[in-house]
Amino acid sequence: MYAGDHARSNEPAVKRALWRLVAFLLLFVLVNWGVMPLALQAYAIPSGSMEGTILVGDRVYSERISYYLHDPEAGDIITFQDPACEGRVLIKRVVATGGQTVDLVDGRVVVDGAPLDEPYVNGKPSFPMDTAWGVDVSYPLTVPEGELWVMGDNRTNSQDSRYFGTVPVDSVTGKAVFTYWPVPRIGLLDS
Predict the structure, then answer these.
(1) Domain Peptidase S26 spans what residues (predicted)?
(2) Where are any strands of DSSP class E within the chain?
């Protein structure tokens, strides 16, 4: 056997390896552009409204599956359509759900008469704020069924339900579950 004969006998193996690589890359693209958006959505965090938990510039994944099975619960960090700006998605923490009563007393959030233990706010007070035009928020406020009361963890720098009122459950786009960038901050988000 000559050296040229040996090279020709490896050609089918090299072609198969190249086809496998091409097939893998096509599958990767299909999953990332086709299947992945049905389950996960990536978001870049542009503001400091969730600081303490999520920082400006963090990249997070919001999963879409769990809210097909149940509604958001108090403590969940959710992504949802901004009620004050069409097409914009916000990220906040659910503080109360339909039927619960929210009050702000001496800088603390009180739900159904009990002050919340909120270590994620790092001691920042929760005071009422001026509302968006046409929105009326008065305390105590009972959250309507099918609605949520949401607040940013950075209570002194967050336009949230104190500003735009309650948000419909059907405006929720997912549950924020994982920070994937920057590398030192990779990890699960606490709910």
Answers:
(1) 19-181
(2) 40-44, 59-63, 77-81, 89-97, 101-105, 108-111, 114-115, 141-142, 147-151, 167-168, 172-181, 187-188
